[in-house]
Design goal:
With 154 residues, this protein is an alpha+beta fold. The protein has a two-stranded antiparallel sheet. The protein has a two-stranded antiparallel ribbon with strand order 3-7. It is globular. It is built from four helices and twelve strands.
Length: 154
């Protein structure tokens, strides 16, 4: 009997509510700066959606001096899920400003870095050649906030 590995779903990528083109993907893949959030959607719901959207808005105001309305973010995430035909997904809503290599150097400086997924929060100790000090108290606080966040419908 021959068995086949389960198929891996093809990623669904959108820009402003439309399927991404090759050109859309080329510039952000090579140049630019921006911000993002990562979330796990299970049965159309995600933990702490309101704080995710509020953080995207705050980061957008800081980087680009423009608001990013939460309803628009929710609408775009919902649209991408609907177009992909999924109720479960790992999402990475992002806002980017493409620039040329000669463009502004507005790289953020962080006291700690962490990753977050449906299983919780974990500290990041190194990204490429950059080491990060792990603030254990901050990580405990973040874990508590994550665990207490209500689930909200996308």
């Amino acid at each position: 009997m021959t068995t086949h590995p389960p198929s891996t779903p093809v990623p669904h990528i959108e820009f402003d509510g439309r399927p991404a083109t090759e050109e859309d993907l080329r510039i952000p893949a090579l140049y630019g700066y921006g911000h993002f959030t990562a979330l796990q959607v299970r049965d159309g719901r995600t933990r702490g959606l309101a704080p995710h959207l509020a953080r995207l808005d705050a980061a957008n105001r800081e980087l680009f001096e423009l608001p990013l309305e939460g309803d628009r973010g929710r609408e775009l995430v919902r649209h991408a899920l609907d177009c992909a035909g999924r109720r479960d997904a790992a999402g990475r809503p992002s806002v980017r400003r493409p620039v040329t290599p000669e463009g502004p150097d507005r790289v953020g400086r962080y006291r700690s870095a962490f990753v977050c997924n449906s299983q919780g929060i974990a500290p990041v100790r190194r990204i490429d050649g950059t080491g990060f000090t792990v603030d254990e108290e901050l990580m405990r606080d973040l874990g508590g906030v994550y665990d207490s966040a209500p689930e909200d419908t996308v």
